User: Fold this.
Amino acid sequence: MAVFTNVSEADLTAWLGDYSLGQLLELQGIASGIENTNYFVTTSNGRFVLTLFEILGADELPFYLNLMAHLARHGIPCPNPVANRFNQFLGTLNGKPACIVSRLSGKSTTTPNDLQCAAIGAMLGQMHIAGQSFSQVMPNPRGAAWRAETARRVRPFLDAQQMVLLESEVALHAQQNWTSLPQGVIHADLFRDNVLLENDRIGGLIDFYFACSDALLYDVAITVNDWCTHTDGTLDRTKTRIFLRAYHAVRPLLDSEHRAWPLMLRVAALRFWLSRLFDKHLPRDGELINAHDPSHFERILINHIGTAQTVWL
Assistant:
């Protein structure tokens, strides 16, 4: 989330004329993130989040908006899109596709405790089960082809050792086929800053605009890599075990998923090492932006390669 496109109070007031959300009281830009323009919006009817989509086109967005509406109907605490007077979730604001969704309660944490790791593990399992009845499909746009192309583009910014690591991992994971594992809708970016907590309870899951259809275990690996990892890139064995047991209690992991786990952790780390390298070295212009350090996921990847990870249940 970031501000790339400016929206004035006058712009938003006119746009909100198609919604039954009351009078605009406050508009505040959100600086974190890298993909879309986001604002907190407060009206006389409540608190909301406005998103202007900088990369995704209007033809791609119904998947994400319909998914959030579906999950919200199934009891998953996620942003619920608000329909306008034309019964549409998506509009156009300042030349960009735009939507407004409910703002959830809670705040993110950078230091999750054991109870919070258990809570997010269970919630991820619940989200995966709720997603099984969602009929739309979105092939993962950041799969093998994206990894190969992004690696090509960031290669000039790497030293020799990093290039060897990157090329070997891209080649390794290009050979894998995870279609035999349980598939479904995944969040694909359920980092700590995309989970709102109220003490040890999940108040909300946010930022679904990387969601896609893929192996459910890939989503588990992405989430574990962030929630259960020390700053040196090693997994916290206790938190990982707690997380996985909570997930497994909701959606039991298959033997095939146990076997796939070590490589899944690696490809999940590779995906974010690549995207952070790209965002650091080939950024887009933005008024407010917060690019993340790619070396963190490089360390995670190296540690996964050097350690035989198992599913600790």
